[in-house]
Specification:
Two copies of one chain form a homodimer.
Chain A: H1 7-25, E1 30-31, H2 33-40, H3 44-52, E2 58-59, E3 63-65, H4 66-77, E4 83-88, H5 92-99, E5 108-115, E6 124-125, E7 128-132, H6 136-142, E8 147-150, H7 154-166, E9 171-174, E10 187-190, H8 193-204
Parallel strand pairs in A: 4-5, 4-8, 5-7, 8-9, 9-10
Antiparallel strand pairs in A: 1-3, 2-3, 6-7
Helix pairs in contact in A: 1-4, 2-3
């Protein structure tokens, strides 16, 4: 079944799950697609269509049972289990990733970090000792990880991605500004702030100059 | 015209522009939607449809003139000019953003950085002296910026975004894990690695365990 669901829909599901959990933590029990849509900037029709791939969660005119929907979405997305993550690249960005407190509470545990710089290898950062990237395969053979985070320079990224794939990683979060090539069974998401900025300048370039209020 | 183009199309244009520039720098002059699609993991039909919003760039069966298409896309996206950017939040992530060398070559210049921590305010990072966030409005009144980057904790993000908007910022790149609210004339992109990871676990959760090659 899962293969028939468009990737853009799958990418919106975690956004729904987070918003619904937030509502739940505020004591809410029911929400309409209308309200959820306003909160997320997504049309209610889109939300209803996206969720309809997974069954019937809401009753016409009565809204969604938040708790049931969250549980279902977490099940669908595999958020109920823990995941092992390795990081390659411990420069400024890699350090920020290691220090980021948002991964572990969501079940994403960085179990190893690698770098090629002799000055960085051996350092302990956020409780993890940085290993030489030459030991990537060996380390992953002893202790497999499902997910790899790539925070190396663009020129090295494809090679690192190839090595992660060869070491059994099934999902890659790539911060390097390249369109990475992976085999079809491996999944990639790109995080690229320049592309995000460039998709906004389209709208801003014709905007009138701003006059700050006096 | 620009308002009729779906946002998902606008988000793909910078990806096309980058891939085409890369081809150009390798001496290529013509590319088919087929080849471009294979490289980017996007169907050729999607590429042709996306580009057709902006006029006729290719001839059936002869491919796209890369140079002309790049120039056109850069024009459309507003990539020919420079942009002023301010950063709010100079923790580990903010520091990585200040040190990142990928913004300026693409015309995105961080002209000011702000933080609320007295230990951080006054520090010089990547050539920029961090200012107290209390001076945000005053600084932007003297020297406006079109774009704001938000790298503060989730609990502070909406307030900072409101202040950026009140100070005339028209586009916001938000790294905080919240669904930020902005007025309709302001554009936001979210960078959230947890959401990206959660949209991959959907695919990986049923994958068979990996056996590393001997």
């Amino acid at each position: 079944m899962t293969l028939d669901i468009p990737e853009v829909v799958v990418e919106r599901l975690p956004i729904y799950a987070r918003a619904l959990q937030d509502l739940l933590s505020h004591g809410r029990e029911v929400v309409s697609s209308q309200e959820l849509g306003e909160q997320l900037g997504i049309t209610p029709a889109q939300i209803r269509k996206d969720l309809s791939y997974f069954g019937r969660f809401g009753k016409q005119g009565r809204g969604y049972n938040i708790r049931r929907l969250v549980e279902e979405l977490r099940q669908i997305l595999g958020l109920e289990r823990d995941w092992s993550v390795v990081l390659v690249g411990v420069g400024h960005l890699g350090k920020a990733i290691l220090h980021y407190g948002g991964f572990a509470p969501q079940g994403f545990h960085i179990i190893a970090a690698f770098d090629s710089d002799p000055m960085t290898v051996g350092q302990e950062i956020a409780g993890l000792r940085v290993q030489d990237v030459g030991r990537l395969r060996e380390t992953l053979a002893a202790r497999p990880a499902e997910i790899g985070i790539v925070a190396v320079p663009a020129t090295e990224a494809q090679e690192i991605i190839d090595r992660l794939v060869a070491s059994g990683v099934q999902a890659i979060l790539n911060y390097a500004p390249i369109a990475a090539r992976v085999p079809p069974q491996v999944h990639v998401r790109h995080i690229d702030p320049v592309l995000s900025l460039q998709s906004m300048t389209f709208y801003v370039k014709d905007a009138p100059a701003f006059s700050p209020p006096k």
